[in-house]
Amino acid sequence: MHASHADGHEGFLYGSGDEESRQTLQSRAAEILSEVAGADSVLKKELLPEVFPVEAAVACGYCRLYGGDPPEFPFPEWLAMPAANRLQVLIEESSADAENLPAAWDAALPDEAEDLVASLLFARMDAWAAFETLDAAVEAGGDEALRERIEICQDTLANFDRVLWDRLAFVSTLAETQLLVNWRLSLAAPYRVPLPWWLNGTVEEAAVAVDRSIAVLKREIFGPPRAVPPTPTLPLPVAGPIRGRVQQIYAAAADGAASSSSLTPLYHWRSPNGSITARLHSPIGGPQVKLGTLLMEFYASNESTPHVLRGCMAVLGGQAAPIEWQTAGGAEVAKAEFPSAAIFDESAPELVVFPDADPWKLERV
Amino acid sequence: MGELSITLEELAQLAERWAAGHDGQRGALPSRIIDRLREPLARAWLNPEVVDAAEAYTFELHGAKIPPSTRKRPPPTPSRGRCQLLLVTKSKETLSILRPAFVLPVDWRPSKESGDSSLRLPRGLASFAEQVLRDVEVKGLSLHLPKEFEEAGVDLSGLEFGYESAWAALAAGAIIFDTQGPRSDVMATAAWRADADQSEKGLINRVEGVQEKLTAAAEVGGKIVFLPRENVADVEDWKDKNPGIGIGIKICFLSNAVTKPRAAVGELLQSLGIPPSQAAGDPFEDRCKYHEQMANEEADDYYRRELLAEACERLRRSTGDLNVCRLAFIASKSLAVPLLLASLFNPHHVLVLHDGNIDKSKLERLTDAIKAIGRDESAGPRGVQVVLCDKDRLVPDVARHVQDFEASTSGKLLVDLTTGYRAFNLALLESAPPDALKAFIHSPQKKDRPGAGQEELQFFPRRVEAPSPVTD
């Protein structure tokens, strides 16, 4: 149902979230709306292709999600009801597709399987965009009938989410594609906080969990991997004392006691290709400590900002956090904020950055 | 050189990038610099601007309010075997991020084999440490970075400093290794030059970078800094240039006289809480000087342990053999005079008079000490009578006790009039038999006790020396 596919586009239309993409979106929305406006008699309106109103709503919604101005806002009320009606049908169809996903997955070739899952998330994105438009139409004075229709639609959408959630293991195969990254990058600031569940790291966390389950399963079936003599290296940081350090700072903060701030990171990781370093900061001491959160910073070996991580999702100890951009020290910094539970596992925490999904190397530097 | 060691070239590169940055536009660079040096070393060695910038960056990243700058360097922490080395930054290219001098703590640790020192020490320091151990004749130690430095991953093996000036601090640290928790606010920078003619002796030699080192010591809260006497002019210059900093710091000079290594750092050891000792070969004069500064409670023990034998020997040379068999004196707070006399004359019987004002435990300590001092086991215990005199009837009471003592013992009696107050002394003088020697120890008084090493035995009234026989 997603707009890009409806238009015959292959791949991802709204990838970069830049000005050019926003203009494309606006043109697309304007084009649909002008076609709709061309059918100016009541009779002709009734004969409008069913897909036009919802496509217009989706296109206008994307304009808002990606930081552009819809060509017509608020959405015309007379188009909103047919759009909602059609949206209801499309969501129901997507729910059915999601229900049927395991069987379809088994029947599909590997490349097609990924498309099957992707089309479901495209549908979810489209629904989000359409609701942005329709909700705005209701708020701008839509009638009671439209409000009721949209509420019904939202119940259907909730069901779609439940089914997708049940299929999370399948959805998680998209974590290693550029799709989620592009969506995150495209979103305008008001829509980034909070991110919707399929963009907030849930999918990446599921991918890590699935990988772990597969590893466990492999061990059960094939036994432990053959021991490889370890390469002599410097001792890695031990998890226990590091957790202790964090707990000590939190405890001091909870007691209102002042504790000095450490500039020594808790852990360092190196990206698989060695070009980027991640640094998990000690919580800053004293009354300003953010209880329960830990900050990770990413930097390239040459001290430049690692732009390649824009929109990526970091998963530390099974906890996901989007990599965000901030200015500090007069320069752009890439960072992610994790719940402290990320390091409270028994062993030293594993860091994976999606979509690459290869584990980063824990090290002293 | 370790895999993670920082090198001079790397420091110079970091300094160059730091210098190229503009105010507030350096991003994460200060944090990177701290990561590279590791926090404990970074806080000691980096210019405060870099540490401030790193802290500001970290707080900004956390979305927190930037705390006020704490420019002061962390004070050194005392620890067993710890030495505070004052090191000068060699390369001028690094000075935009590094301080001109800094305090590097290093630890002596017990070691089974020589050459066991840490590989993370700056290049050459481990072998220099071995040399210092040989100089001061201490075995079974090796030199390391402090635990907190090691745990943080500090690795200085890629750097080189001038170590000659670390001699005094390392030597003192090795000598006092067995002492728990030496003072961390006493520092030293002084080199050692072995005397070409006398293999076991040498002298304290001048060092470079004294002014930078004094500033570094002052910044970490150093209270006393020992320097070679030859660097006096540098100190004067530093004081002129830094009138504010120099106030809180006491500067002492190590003698440049030719001596043994242990004696060369004697005063430094004293400041670190290690008294000079006969066993370590410290001169009698140094021990006397130390005794002068001691609190009364500890002074008697020190006098007895470290000074008595030599003080007694000196006195014996001037008094000759007086054949004293009995000694009478008034108990006082200080044990020094009774011990000296008992040791000098080795009397068989001692009468101790007191008026009840002296603490009972002190009296017991005095009695025990007098019983044992200089007494050969084969001669049996010395008889000590302790008697209480009535303050209101001093003269008759003292007379009675002295008569009783006279009656119960025999041999030449020496009545000591050094201690006690005037009335008590007069009573004792009055009561002394005519044939008794009446004497007192004369010396410049220091803190209510005779100055050790300057004691003279004088008689009352003065003994008239027999004229020398005329030979011609």
Counted up, domains of chain A total 2
Terminus-to-terminus distance of chain B: 85 Å
Number of strands of chain A: 9
Low-confidence parts of chain B, pLDDT < 50 over ≥5 residues?
A: none
Please give the largest β-sheet of chain B. 6 strands, mixed
Mean residue pLDDT of chain A: 83
SSE series of chain A: HHHHHHHHHHHHEEEEEEEEE
Q: Tell me roughly what share of residues is in helical segments of chain B.
A: 25-40%
**CATH fold category name of the largest domain in chain B:** Ribosomal Protein S5, domain 2
Please outline the major beta sheet of chain A.
6 strands, antiparallel
| Oligomeric state of this protein | heterodimer
| Beta-strand content bin of chain A | 5-15%
Radius of gyration of chain A: 24 Å
- Helical content class of chain A: 40-55%
Amount of beta strand of chain B: 15-25%
Outline the low-pLDDT stretches of chain A. 1-16
Strand order across the largest sheet of chain A? 6-7-3-2-1-9
Q: How many DSSP H or I helices of chain B? A: 17
The Rg value of chain B, from CA coordinates, equals 31 Å
Features:
heterodimer, A: 365 residues, alpha+beta, 2 domains, six-stranded antiparallel β-sheet, three-stranded antiparallel β-sheet, 9 strands, 13% strand, B: 472 residues, alpha/beta, Ribosomal Protein S5, domain 2, Rossmann fold, 3 domains, six-stranded mixed β-sheet, 17 helices, 16 strands
